[in-house]
Specification:
- About 35% of the residues lie in helices and about 15% in strands.
- It folds into two domains: about 180 residues, no CATH class; about 150 residues, Rieske [2Fe-2S] iron-sulphur domain (Rieske Iron-sulfur Protein).
- The radius of gyration is 35 Å and the shape is elongated.
- The chain is α+β, with helices and mostly antiparallel strands and about 350 residues long.
- The strands form four sheets. Strands 3-4-5-6-11 form a five-stranded antiparallel sheet. Strands 7-8-9-10 form a four-stranded antiparallel sheet, with no helix packed on it. The protein has a two-stranded antiparallel sheet with strand order 1-2.
- A hairpin with a 5-residue loop joins β12 and β13.
């Protein structure tokens, strides 16, 4: 019988006899590793693992240095790929190598230094009796002893040092998320007296321009100048509004105002166009029910009743802008928005 046949026969006997509850299990011959009988080889493997953990710690420190010192505008030429961001390349290489050397060190530790005993574990019921739990704890303790974690101090310390430094890049890159929104969410282009104009064209709007049941997209008159000064569309993402007109008798409630200073003008009301779920623009209006539907996730707002949420994942009512008329009869903002525009963040959901 060949060695291969003997191994296969031993494997079959192991399965069959384990199924029958026999303790006479046949296993193929065990071949020890060099580190099992050669102390110098074990010491050499220990130095290798320690060196890998040390390299991981070094590259973690280099990651932080690269993050602080390399300007995001710096580039480096890469053959066949053009130019790359020097910051991104350095951060990717250092963090990748820090991760690699921790993983490689643990694999080398397990392969060459941890216990190489072969253990047969026959099948048992899924429910764990107290005896099995005690055996599991004993097996865990044996594994701790066999791994050398408690006795190989230099390995333990180098691993703990590398693992202690490893989360630092994850904490550092949180800065790229930017500051918390704080009061910036309340700052828009809408100020008292700001004229409401048609989106795109910039034409001023009179109440007579909006028929009963009509809705128009609008913006503050100063928005084009703000966009030109800043060179981006961030202001548009916060300042666009919807003007809707309905019969005043159909208005159930508004988000503020008094009989002397109402937030509407003869049934014309103004609301933010930005959904309070994740910030999608809204323009799907159902005239008969006065419902405004967000096309992204179907959040639905009742504009006749303080723009409250009646369906969907939005967490807040659609902000209402108080309006009035100026001396020329055009619609202007009476006040700014009284609640933040846009998605509901976790601190104010």
């Amino acid at each position: 019988m060949s060695d291969k046949d003997a191994v296969e026969l031993g494997a079959h006997q192991t399965v069959d006899e384990a199924a029958e509850g026999s303790n006479d299990v046949v296993l193929p011959d065990h071949h020890p590793r060099r580190t099992d009988f050669d102390p110098r080889a074990a010491k050499r493997a220990e130095r290798q693992v320690t060196f890998m953990f040390g390299l991981s710690a070094l590259f973690t420190v280099l990651f932080v240095i690269a993050y602080v010192q390399i300007d995001t505008a710096d580039t480096i030429p890469v053959p066949f790929f053009g130019t790359w961001s020097a910051s991104n390349a350095a951060l990717g290489v250092t963090f990748g190598l820090a991760s690699f050397f921790i993983g490689a060190g643990v694999m080398q530790w397990a392969k060459k230094l941890m216990s190489d005993r072969e253990v047969v574990s026959p099948r048992h019921a899924l429910a764990s009796p107290p005896e099995a739990r005690e055996e599991a704890v004993a097996a865990f303790n044996d594994g701790v002893d066999d791994s050398g974690f408690a006795t190989r101090r230099i390995l333990r310390r180098s691993l703990l040092g590398a693992m202690a430094l490893f989360p630092i890049p994850l904490i550092v890159i949180l800065r790229d998320l930017g500051p918390l929104p704080s009061n910036d969410l309340f700052i828009t282009g809408w100020v008292p007296g700001e004229r409401v104009v048609l989106d795109v064209t910039g034409a001023p709007i009179r109440p007579s321009d909006i028929p009963i049941g009509g809705i128009v997209s609008a913006m503050p008159a100063s928005l084009p100048e703000i966009q030109e000064e800043t060179g981006n569309l961030n202001a548009r993402a916060k300042d666009v509004v919807l003007l809707v007109r309905m019969n005043p008798d159909e208005i159930v409630s508004q988000q503020g105002g008094t009989p002397e200073a109402p937030w509407d003008y003869e049934g014309v009301m103004c609301f933010s166009k930005i959904c309070t779920h994740v910030g999608c623009p809204i323009a799907l209006y159902e005239q008969r029910t006065h419902h405004l539907l967000c096309p992204c996730h179907q959040s639905t707002f009742d504009l006749a009743d303080s723009a409250r949420v009646i369906f969907g994942p939005a967490a807040r009512d659609l902000p209402q802008l108080p309006i009035m008329l100026d001396d020329e009869g055009y619609i202007i903002a009476r006040e700014t928005f009284q609640q933040p525009i846009g998605p509901s963040f976790w601190e104010r959901a």
